[in-house]
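Please predict the structure of the following assembly.
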Amino acid sequence: MIVKNSVENSVKNSVSASRRQFLKNAAAMSAVAAVPFYISGKVLGKDGAVPPSEQVILGALGIGARGAHDFGVFLNNPDVRFLSICDIRKSRREWVKQQADAKYGSNDCTMFRNMFDFYDANPQMDAVLIATGDRWHTMATIVAAKAGKDVYCEKPLSLTIQESRAVEKAVNRYGRVFQAGTQRRNIGNFQLAAKLAHEGKLGKLTEVHANTLSPGTTHDWLPAQPEPTQDEVDWELWLGPCPWRPYNASYIGGGWRGFYDFHGGGILEWGTHTVDLCQWANQSDDTVPVEYWATYNEKGEKTARVEARYANGVKLVCRNDGWLGLGTCSARYVGEEGWVETGDSGRMEVSSDALRKELKYFGMPGTSPDNHIREFLDCVKSRKKPASNADVAANAHIASHCAKIVWDLNPAQLSDSAKSFTLKFDPVKEEFIGNGTEVETANRLRTRAMRSPWRC
Amino acid sequence: MKHIYYLLIVSFLVTCSAWAQDPDWHQVPKDTLLEKGADVINMLLSTTDENAMLNIVKQTGTENDILRLKMFAYKRLGMYGTKAAVPVLVEKLDIEKEDFYARYALETIPGDEVDAALCETTKTVKRPAALAGVLTSLGVRGNPQSAATAKGFLKHEDLDVRKAAGYAYACTAGEEAVEFFTQKSLDPALADSGFLLAEIFKNKGEKEKAVKIYDALAAADIKAYQKEAALYWGILVRGLDGIDLLVAQLNSESPKFFGVGLKAGRELPAGVAVTKAMVDQLGKQSDPLRKAKLVRSIGDRKDKESKTVSLPAISELAQSGDVAVRVAAIDSLRNIGDPSVLPILIEAANQTDLPEVANAAENTLRNLPGKEIDDAIVGLLEKGNSAAKIKAIGLVEDRRIISAYPLLKKGLLDSDAGVRQAAIDALGQTAGIEDLPILLDALGKSKSDEEAEKILVVLKSACTRLPQDAASAEVLKLFANGSTAMKINLLDLLKEIGGAKAIEIVNQHAWGNDAELKDKATAILGQWRSPQDLDLVAAACLKLAKESKENKFKVRGLRGYIRLARQFSMPEERRLQICREVYDLADRNEDKVLIFDVFTRNPSLKVLDVTVNYLDNETFKEKASETAVAIGEKLQGKSPQTANAMKKVIEKTANNSVKERAQRVLDKQ
């Protein structure tokens, strides 16, 4: 079941730099979630305290840099009660416990290394924040859903097409509420840009552009180093479902990015935000493009730009150059009568003075998860699907994976023997279609085995 | 020297090719293989020859160095392997560390031979983890012929094996598995597989089988949250036949099962029967928080067909009673309301003693479509009290009620300060170019810094929406008589407006005689944000860097100029040209060094070449080394330029960490 988020209402409620900002922030959220659910404890007659029935009991899994930011935002919501941390790193477990205990003036936050122990010990936990490295997002979400927890999971959710769909299936199979960390769906300038596309202000939509990074990844290993103790860093659990390789401290410190076994490369890194925005602008949340191709420069060298086409004829362009400089994770929507571009700075550029009249001033940076987390918490209580639910997130991820696969399989340099090719994709069967080695290989890359005992 | 290198490569590739064809080549000493590790990997990454891959896989041992090479071969077999690889791969399925890689290849190789071989292997694999892996692979492949094998392990003593068998059985057995997963004494560890099987039938449209399994799971001795899921799907798959089950959940004392009812009720198809059943339960909810949640669930159904059932009930709840329920009901009117609810909303919006209720009403008014709603809001603006006017002004703005815009301007003259401020806020979002003088005038007449700041925010908001040069021309008029503080504000405003006229005005002040304005204007040039003004702002910054007599402004110009190269989109040649100019113009090393940040952010082979030139510069060789390595790490593919750059870094840098990183990049070339 796909939830198509009409931006019409949400944009009307978006952030304005006025003294009514608070109200409008709340309204912007509620229009997406349609559930401004949090009512102050004062109104609920509990002397300012949120009644237990309205608290969201939260745990967290794998808290690094981005996770720490999310964690802080969760903690600042008055209806959140943080309970427990699970992390394979002792230092991170202790840091989270310190923050939570300081917040509540207690010593109650419990710490776990293994997620099964974490869930077994915390049956009262309603929801979990998952902010591990990308390699774990699919499996951790599936385990959480099987354990009956609602999930806020950072992106990218998956390393393959099949994993993307597996996240969606698990979330729906167990009736859980899920929000992917693609917070731009709850931020004013991105909502307004999508609205301009939806309402035909740009004319008939022809192209949607997603700011992505360099797609390449490597299979190689870093040199082996002595493993820390299991209590300090549980290397086996760090690897989890991924192929085994020897320990190197660099991976643990964030150096896992760029390795195929752990990371989807630059298209997944940002495309899970920006391809997602393009899917939304094109009103194709329930499908993905049907054709994908890599691009080459005049010297025949493969560029970082990948293009695709939806069944409705709109072209999707994933690129890392030529942006106006409106901030990271930019998106641009082009129609027959104009274009709009926006990014994490909150600023917007348009093609004409007529479109300029539609603009508003937005103060919230695209990196802020505040609205997105609030919406998730509301949905945990109402059992509604949030804006970045598993259905829409799965499709944005599948489109990004298709783009990565066509880039990986196309030759690095064109020559007499090496020709570029386009891959056609059937969004219903979720398979590349046609004949030839490239198509068969692309289909094989839709999935990867997981180490025992993990499975999607 | 170069010729010898090429000869070595060619000879190695010839050898590899020979190896690939030689059935006994794997008897080549492991040491020889390892010695040529990088070349073996290159060979594997460029070939689709299955024999070449198998020859590596056949090597014995799982030490890190040989496993690394095998890992590449296994992955390539996953992409290009055929049934010919199967006998070699299944032999590896009980070898620790290597069994996974064998499955990595086997899971994607097409053909029944793979499934048959995996089934056969279950008879011999000894380690439970390996056996669980093989069973998982059978499930992933989903061949019905594997069902009997999977069934044989459903009672295995090892939990992981049992779970894997359950998964494989659900994925392969079809109808035959229904009996197993509906048995009363189902092993709780296999409940997840029961859900999987039910889902398979649900997706195939075989509703009865799916319902049978969901019902059995709901009755089984499993965890409460699993029962929740079984009931949720039991309701959804039944559709209209699931209403009784839905009602039972909505009246359950358990908050979790109540939650199942909320979710299922929201997602069941539109129709009077479901909506009426939900509405009927409202009266049975004694806890206002539960009632509020049920109201929201009914509203979220957006079931306009059943409005005759839901609207009277929700409207009544919106008018009085518990605040949480009222807020929920008012919110829900956004989805199911019509002009008939307008009096309720207007009254609620004016309930200043209950801000949650008033805010909810304002929000619903903002979103409920219809000209009748517009007219009522305008009426409120014309005749309401101050509090009502403030709300109405916001609604006029949000709903874009153009006919009421003149009334917003009237609000600027209201005796109530709150109304005046609301009018200014609204004008910020609605003003046309003809209204800009009104806002600028308000800025000029502001009575405090705080007030000026507020108006400035509003002006910035307006200016993002107005034609750039026309807006700048209006701003320019105020420079004639404004105070210095005011002019500083205006310069800030011009930065927001952007465009040629704005730059022209700022530039004039950057070269003017007023020291305060000069300071502000030169700072603003270095912060210019409008990417479409690149050429103009670049020229202004460069002029400052070249011609300013004051060092402070010269540095500002330089830093503003290099910032453009760092942050704005432009052709590579232009970016490098800016870097060259900044390096040559700068007197201080702390300014020259900024070019390396530009290089790091914009990696390419050409940029790498330029960076390498600085490795011979004693002052910057360490910074250049670090930058070159950062670029090398970001560049895709292999190139002699990258290899040579890394060699030179290794030679020049004294920083061991940078040296190690350079070596790692070099190893991949």
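The radius of gyration of chain A is 22 Å. The longest strand of chain A covers residues 302-309.
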